[in-house]
């Protein structure tokens, strides 16, 4: 079956530190992979995505590379800001297209960035 | 703004009651998903509809039910409410394409007292 495992939190970093949040997946077939971010009091927003092996998704300084050989999609940012404090969710979609994709989410990793 | 609209934003009700949460998906999106988010259990998938038909079921209690109407909006009905049902309930929608993402609404915060 399909599943996503991501790094347990919470994660606390100082401003300008390097961020890595690990995500690995199990899937039948070739899923699309996503990172979502949830700011306090809000819904989940798409941060970035990758739809095939070796694709790199990037947005707002965050990036993640779809690694089929290691079934991973780790989120990285070179220099975090206080405004990056949020909960980050890794997810995959099974690409069923015309019958409706199913999405599988990790448990979320809470990030706090301190000045 | 994701284009997914959920109403109401907040709901306070007593144990044993029944409530209905409403979701309007983005224009053109055929899939609607419902999720429950509580502090101790993360994001739990409840149910998915695609073009009016139930597509997948997750950890949805028998006291909960949902439907998707011909105009594609969806409703989640929660009955015989218990204190433990207090949570954020999110609706998401997605288009029919294989590589599309899910777009989330702002959620309905349900408090059962």
Structural summary, described in words:
The complex is a heterodimer of chains A (115) and B (113). Chain A has 115 residues and is mostly beta strands. In chain A, 0% of the residues lie in helices and 50% in strands. Chain A contains no helices and twelve strands. In chain A, the strands form three sheets. In chain A, strands 2, 5, 6, 10, 11 and 12 form a six-stranded mixed sheet that branches. A four-stranded antiparallel sheet of chain A has the order 3-9-8-7, with no helix packed on it. In chain A, a hairpin with a 5-residue loop joins strand 5 and strand 6. Chain B contains no helices and eleven strands. In chain B, strands 2, 4, 5, 6, 9, 10 and 11 form a seven-stranded mixed sheet that branches. Chain B has a four-stranded antiparallel sheet with strand order 1-3-8-7, with no helix packed on it. The termini of chain B are far apart. The mean pLDDT of chain B is 94. The A-B interface holds A 32, 34, 36, 42-46, 49, 51, 89, 91, 93, 95-105, 107-108 and B 2, 4, 30-31, 33, 42-43, 45, 48-51, 55-56, 90, 92, 94, 96-107.
Could you give a quick summary of the protein structure above?
With 115 residues, chain A is mainly beta.
SSE topology:
The complex is a heterodimer of chains A (115) and B (113).
Chain A: E1 3-6, E2 11-14, E3 19-21, E4 23-26, E5 32-38, E6 44-50, E7 56-59, E8 62-65, E9 75-77, E10 86-93, E11 103-105, E12 109-114
Parallel strand pairs in A: 2-12
Antiparallel strand pairs in A: 1-4, 3-9, 5-6, 5-10, 7-8, 8-9, 10-11, 10-12
Chain B: E1 5-7, E2 10-13, E3 19-24, E4 31-38, E5 42-50, E6 53-57, E7 64-68, E8 74-78, E9 87-94, E10 103-104, E11 108-112
Parallel strand pairs in B: 2-11
Antiparallel strand pairs in B: 1-3, 3-8, 4-5, 4-9, 5-6, 7-8, 9-10, 9-11
